Amino acid sequence: MSHVLMNDKNRTRSKRADSENDNAVETSKLKARYRYDRYYGRNEAKDGPGERGSSVILNVEEQRKADALFDKEAFNLIASDKIALDRTLRDNRDPDCKKIPYPEDLPSASVIIIFTNERWSPLLRTVHSVVNRSPPEYLHEVVLFDDFSDHEELGPKLEEYIKDTWPDGVVKLVRAKQRCGLIRARLEGAKAATGDVMVFLDSHCEANEGWLEPLLARIHEKRDAVLCPMIDVIDSHSMSYSGIGASSVGGFWWSLHFSWHGIPSHEAARRKKLTDPIRSPTMAGGLFAVDRKYFFEVGSYDEGMNMWGGENLEISFRVWMCGGSLEFIPCSRVGHIFRASHPYDMGKEDWHGMNSKRLAEVWMDEYKRLFYMHRRDLIDKDVGDISERKKLREKLNCKSFKWYLENIYPEKNVPDERVQAYGMVRNPSSNMCLDTLGKDEKKVIPIGVYSCQGGASASEVFTLSLAGELRREETCADASASNPNVVLRSCHGGKSNQYFKYDKISKTIKHASGLCLDTEGLSNGQGVKIKECSGKDTQKWELEHILEI
Ligand code: UD2
Ligand code: MN
């Protein structure tokens, strides 16, 4: 039977009795388990704020304090402080997950949690959740890496708490001598770890029931698989824990920001069961498991990256291109507090941009042009020496970015390949171009017109796809005779409202409804409409690059 029943003392004990006479390795694992026995049963039902992952309800005074702190902390510290450090959670796995028989000889895990000025309660709740919900024979250690925090509560009090709470050696605290930034902090944590597998977590997580075994089992089966648990949501206001299902994979924007997407149809077809790993083009970054030796073999992280950001896409591209795989494990669930800002100081530099330039230069070959289309400001920016990373790519004999796009992320929109046209969509009589006006493209937004910037602005780059979509990276122009204001919304691939045809002779862009894209009466910043085709200059368009197909 599997270890997912780890909170059932009797079962654990009888299994232990069965294996009593096994070899020395087994015996030492069992010793480890004895040490933990008193930590079993911590997930038993109890009452209190936030138990079973529920929301915390604050009184008026507490809520006032919480609101006053929210901007600085970026989460509800008052609510978090009210919740037990070992609160219970609802087990929200698919029922089939509980039936999986995991092998007995799984590798051991070092769980690495880096933090800088994390608050006490979310930090310690992360550690408690890991110790309480990991089978002790597989939990080699928890490495807490303090990236130079200066909050007083994280000083000697933390050492004392660890000493008083867990048996020696279970939770190891390592302190940085200077601020490392998250990338080098993870590397330092990795250097301190000695388990077979490393599992990285952010310092404001809660590991749920049975989270560890499926990760270890998959690495046992495939040592070059890099695995992410499903990242459940701990609400930053209420601290409630909610499952997010298992229906998303990671992608990216050409600006090299991470994005979530539904599981693509080719991947859905490949998988046989709901509990099977889901291959993902990228990872969010914070929560993943990797064979310790493989992590270093495949190039760990780029030490030239600073502070925060970009390392997640770098490791994603690298693992796939250099022969490994990146997978989401539906039966492994860990909650994370998603915060709208960082509650620690990072200085004023655009670290995400600079780190992303390093990864674009090393891994993206000619496709880096699409990154620079969004980040012209970085074209001449010095981001340090990248020759070591290029050598690594050569040494590991990694495949091209084109291979990655074609094989791992075929659904990714490449705005200037296999399309009818791309670039500015210009109305010559007014010299106005279609423009997103810099609005957030994760929402439904109108398409506006604006004085053409000569391609200097990514917000005026559109694609006319082979399927007749007038589109951006993730969204398509959408209109109808009854809703003639043209908006950008997610592409549905079904033509109709999202179908446009360009006529090179008349220069019109005609919508499926028979109406034409028109700038009549519009000035800078106003939304474009489809109207009765009139042959007037306000309906004439030039597409910047028309491809010969
Ligand atoms: C996401 C990732 C995060 C990281 C980041 C991109 C998830 C859930 N989170 O942002 O892990 O990959 O994208 O870089 O996938 N920290 C330090 N030193 C620093 C800065 C941060 O130790 O200089 C710690 C911090 O305390 C936290 C972790 O690094 O434990 C991640 O930072 P975050 O939670 O602010 O990042 P997040 O979740 O917004
Ligand atoms: Mn985080």
Automatic annotation (TrEMBL):
| Entries under SUPFAM superfamilies matching the protein | Nucleotide-diphospho-sugar transferases, Ricin B-like lectins
Q: How does it sit in the membrane?
A: Single-pass type II membrane protein
Q: Where is this region: Disordered?
A: 1-28
Question: What's one GO-annotated cellular component?
Answer: Golgi membrane
Q: Which domain of life is it from?
A: Eukaryota
Q: Which UniProt keywords apply?
A: Disulfide bond, Glycosyltransferase, Golgi apparatus, Lectin, Manganese, Membrane, Metal-binding, Signal-anchor, Transferase, Transmembrane, Transmembrane helix
What Gene3D superfamilies does the annotation carry? Answer: 2.80.10.50, Spore Coat Polysaccharide Biosynthesis Protein SpsA, Chain A
Q: Give its E.C. classification number.
A: 2.4.1.-
Q: Tell me which cofactor or cofactors this protein depends on.
A: Mn(2+)
Q: Where in the cell is it found?
A: Golgi apparatus membrane
Which pathway does the UniProt entry assign to this protein? Protein modification; protein glycosylation
What the entry lists under InterPro entries is as follows:
GalNAc-T (IPR045885), Glyco_trans_2-like (IPR001173), Nucleotide-diphossugar_trans (IPR029044), Ricin_B-like_lectins (IPR035992), Ricin_B_lectin (IPR000772)
Q: Which CDD domains match?
A: beta-trefoil_Ricin_Pgant1-like, pp-GalNAc-T
Q: What is its main location?
A: Golgi
Which family, according to the similarity comment? Belongs to the glycosyltransferase 2 family. GalNAc-T subfamily.
Which PANTHER family does the entry mention? N-ACETYLGALACTOSAMINYLTRANSFERASE, POLYPEPTIDE N-ACETYLGALACTOSAMINYLTRANSFERASE 1
Q: What is this protein called?
A: Polypeptide N-acetylgalactosaminyltransferase
Q: Which organism is it from?
A: Owenia fusiformis (Polychaete worm)
